[in-house]
Specification:
Elements lengths: L1 H30 L3 E6 L4 E4 L1 H7 L5 E3 H6 L3 H12 L2 H5 L3 E8 L6 E12 L5 E10 L1 H8 L7 H5 L6 E5 L5 E4 L1 H7 L17 H15 L5 E9 L5 E12 L5 E10 L1 H25 L7 E7 L4 E4 L1 H7 L9 H6 L4 H12 L6 E9 L6 E12 L7 E9 L1 H6 L21 H14 L3 E9 L6 E9 L1 H7 L3 H4 L4 H4 L7 H12 L3 E7 L6 E10 L2 E8 L1 H33 L2 H22 L2 H30 L5 E4 H11 L1 H7 L2 E4 L4 E4 L1 H17 L8 E10 L15 E8 L10 H4 L18 H11 L3 E6 L5 E9 L2
Parallel strand pairs: 23-25
Antiparallel strand pairs: 1-2, 1-6, 2-3, 4-5, 5-6, 7-8, 7-11, 9-10, 10-11, 12-13, 12-16, 14-15, 15-16, 17-18, 17-21, 19-20, 20-21, 22-24, 25-26, 26-28, 27-28
Helix pairs in contact: 1-10, 1-20, 20-22, 21-22, 22-27, 23-25, 25-27
């Protein structure tokens, strides 16, 4: 029982770790607006997600590689081609980052894009595909190009800031704003002077804002932070995070409010997109749980001397052994795909001393069902009893098929943004105090250094601390007064001679803006941080963002990505075995049954009836396997998206069902149907299943009447009960109506589940998978399906698909 408890605790810990990683990933995606892409040089194709489409302002989710390369600026194209020809990540194993300019085919505007990715190599050594992230850095490049001289040292520290700053009097009237805030709300700076903050605030947020300001005036709080909405000059709404504090004069009386305003509209949109992705992930997991159990644990004991293997009840169920059956080691090894390697691992473990541990991943087939699954067996060599010389292996095993299958590829490059503050036009000393408050409130460590040069050669030899904010002090663990006036080499002697040290000196010499990630492990530190730096005259401004936790998350997600790739390969192998090996025994049963009926029917007598029932069961099993394979392929196979005329698809389906239509004396009316983007084979499967159901579930003595129609619906006109997977401006509604037996609408959610039937097999044949396949096809195309029906009055299935004109 102790082993069971430890294993259960280990499983709970693993699940909690996976949940924590997912939450960290979600937080990172909410903070960083990045897109994901994959490039296939051999297929001359680039695929990307919707975020990438917005970043590049590209009309399609798939584009030819040569067309994409033709849009890259000639000055950047050679560098891009060199990286594709010889990817640095092939040698280093690390992601490669490159900045380049590209012209959108939609608005012909030039954008700066930063991509970070790595290459996946084929066994032959050639590149199979590239994948990674993309981010629009156009604004960043523009800011770098337009940096201006700042008159005061504190102003230099914020030359890269992009936050809005608002100063209000104690009556909450605007006295001063910077350009960032003016741009945020769409006004000129002069237009808002002496206006009450309510003039540009959303009415629903005003009372909370006033309450928080009154708390500051009453000294009930030192500052506050909350999210609010501003009404722009053009009437649109923008979300912002507002950080505010009360400035007092020398006598301690309230003087003014200083408010830092950060645009979080994009972050909230990313949060909504992440919630949608999580919803899709949960939906996918629920579908998979219908066929695969969640990982559980079992125990085993191997006695090679007696060729005996003791298994717990769960392990017996896994491998298809009865609960009272004596099991030999040979029988269990016969269920394994790679029997030889498992035997070698066991022999090696027994050849060593007591206490030797062994971990084996193995594929095993259930003897009763033929299902193959992946297990992890962990055992230890022990004596059968304390005084017994014979050795056995005791351990635990767990089904890890689901764990392998659920891993997700996610590489993320986290990039911080330094805050920027425009030159103020008010009194210099008052502005300096206000800017000091802003720097000490920032989450980014910021430091201003003077450049130290050799008196004889004038070469840069060190950097001296002039100003730092509180975050820089907390990150280094050194008080501010102990840093000011010291050189960098005095504070961090391990820095001298490092790559970062040479980059700082190069920045001081050349003035070229600096941006990079660094892993510092000297002087008792072990942190990852993102560095940005600029030079102004004889001063440097460096900002440091601690990304240690995010970097650790990235490394963990890379491991999950490898597990996902393995799980996908295993699922494809299972589909291949099911489509060949499982069908062959059924064909043999039917063939030998025919031989028995033809040659020995007189001798069998009443046994012919049992023989026919056996063949009918084999036929149903064959159909079930085919339906399961169809569902599996639709679930795992990458679909091909092209322009598909639905009239052509349905005409071919009607041709395939011609005999069934004639037998039922059915009428099929097809209205004008649109052309949509999708996978033709999957759409054909969808409509074949729906039409087959209309023919199958018909009323006795009533000729089937089937009507197929379509209409275009704007997104705003969709029923409130319809939840679309992929958002679109409009949708195509394809309706398939019949006059069949109908069904009670209380079973609407049930009919689309795998193996769910509303009638017995003796009434209507089928496997209960057809409508589950229909729903999966619709989901793959970003749509949804529903139905309306009454018993004895027929049914109408409605398929909503995104429409891109």
């Amino acid at each position: 029982m102790g082993n069971y408890k430890n294993v259960e605790e280990e499983l709970v810990a693993l699940r909690e770790e996976l949940d924590r990683v997912r939450k960290q990933t979600s937080a990172a995606l909410e903070a960083v607006g990045i897109g994901l892409w994959t490039m296939f040089p051999q297929q001359n194709r680039v695929l990307w997600d919707e975020q990438c489409q917005r970043i590049y302002n590209w009309p399609h989710a798939s584009v030819r590689l040569d067309e994409f390369m033709s849009r890259i600026d000639p000055q950047d194209l050679i560098r891009m081609q060199a990286i594709l020809a010889e990817p640095p990540s092939r040698q280093t194993g690390k992601p490669t980052t490159i900045d380049y300019r590209i012209t959108s085919p939609v608005d012909e505007k030039v954008r700066w894009i930063r991509i970070t990715g790595r290459v996946t190599m084929q066994a032959s050594g050639t590149a199979d595909y590239f994948s990674g992230t993309a981010q629009d850095i156009t604004d960043e490049k523009r800011r770098e190009a337009t940096l201006q001289t700042v008159e005061q040292r504190f102003q230099m520290a914020f030359s890269n800031a992009s936050v809005g700053v608002v100063i209000l009097d104690t009556h909450s009237r605007i006295q001063l704003i910077n350009k960032a805030f003016a741009d945020l709300v769409g006004y000129d700076q002069e237009e808002l002077h002496d206006q009450h903050f309510q003039a540009i605030s959303h009415p629903d947020d005003v009372q909370e804002n006033i309450f928080l300001a009154q708390q500051l005036l009453a000294e009930e709080a030192n500052s506050y932070v909350f999210n609010k909405r501003y009404i722009r000059k053009d009437g649109s709404i923008v979300w912002a995070q507002v950080s505010s504090a009360l400035i007092r004069d020398q006598d301690g009386k309230p003087d003014s409010f200083i408010t830092i305003v950060q645009d979080i509209t994009t972050e909230l949109q990313a949060q909504a997109e992440q919630k949608k992705l999580l919803s899709l992930l949960q939906s996918s997991e629920e579908s998979l749980r219908d066929a695969i159990e969640l990982a559980e644990l079992s125990t085993f004991e191997i006695d090679p001397a007696k060729d005996v293997l003791l298994l717990s009840e769960r392990a017996r169920d896994w491998l298809g052994f009865s609960h009272d059956e004596r099991i030999t080691l040979t029988q269990v090894l016969d269920t394994m795909r790679d029997r030889n390697s498992v035997e070698v691992s066991l022999n090696q473990a027994f050849s060593k001393d007591v206490g030797t541990t062994t971990d084996i991943e193995l594929w095993a087939i259930n003897r009763q069902t033929g299902q193959e699954r992946l297990y992890l067996a962990q055992g230890r060599v022990v004596r059968r009893s304390p005084n017994d010389a014979d050795l056995v292996i005791r351990g635990i095993a767990k089904d890890i098929t689901t764990q392998k299958q659920y891993a997700r590829e996610l590489e993320q490059q986290v990039q911080g943004r330094t805050q920027a503050l425009q030159q103020a036009t008010v009194l210099v000393e008052q502005q300096a105090d206000q800017l000091r408050f802003v720097t000490d409130s920032a989450l980014t460590a910021i430091a201003l250094y003077s450049i130290v040069r050799d008196e004889k050669t004038a070469t840069v030899i060190d950097l001296r601390y002039v100003l730092i904010n509180q975050m820089a002090s907390r990150m280094t663990g050194i008080p501010v007064d102990r840093l000011i006036g010291k050189t960098m080499s005095e504070v961090f002697p391990g820095m001298k001679g490092s790559k970062a040290w040479h980059l700082y000196l190069e920045l001081a010499e050349t003035g070229t803006p600096l941006r990079y990630h660094n892993h510092y492990t000297q002087d008792g530190y072990d942190i990852w941080y993102q560095v940005q730096g600029v030079r102004q005259g004889d001063f440097l401004v460096l900002s440091f963002l601690d990304i240690t936790e995010l970097k650790q998350t990235q490394l963990q997600l890379e491991g999950l990505n490898k597990d996902l790739l393995t799980a996908n390969d295993n699922l494809q192998q299972f589909a291949f075995i099911a489509s060949h090996d499982l069908q062959e025994p059924l064909r043999k049963v039917q063939q030998f049954g025919d031989l028995l009926k033809n040659q020995y029917s007189t001798e069998l007598g009443d046994g012919v009836t049992y023989l026919e029932r056996m063949q009918l069961a084999a036929q149903r099993m064959s159909i079930l396997i085919k339906d399961l394979l169809t569902f599996s392929r639709i679930t795992t196979k990458t679909q091909t998206t092209t322009e598909i005329p639905l009239e052509r698809v349905i005409s071919r389906v009607v041709e395939d069902l011609d005999i069934a239509i004639q037998d039922a004396d059915a009428t099929v009316q097809i209205d004008s149907l649109p052309v949509i983007k999708g996978d033709e084979s999957q759409l054909r499967q969808l409509f074949q299943n729906l039409l087959s159901n209309s023919l199958k579930f018909r009323r006795p003595d009533v000729k089937p009447d089937i009507h197929i129609s379509a209409q275009r619906i704007a997104a705003s006109d969709l029923p409130s009960t319809i939840n679309m997977i992929r958002q679109s401006a409009s949708y195509q509604l394809i309706s398939i109506s019949d006059n069949g037996i109908g069904f009670d609408e209380k079973y609407l959610d049930r009919i689309f589940q795998v193996f769910q039937r509303l009638h017995g097999k003796n009434q209507y044949d089928g496997t209960g998978i057809g409508l589950a396949i229909v729903q999966k096809v619709v989901s793959n195309h970003g749509g949804t399906i529903t139905a309306t029906s009454q018993l004895g009055q027929g049914s109408t299935f409605q398929v909503f698909l995104p429409y891109e004109s």
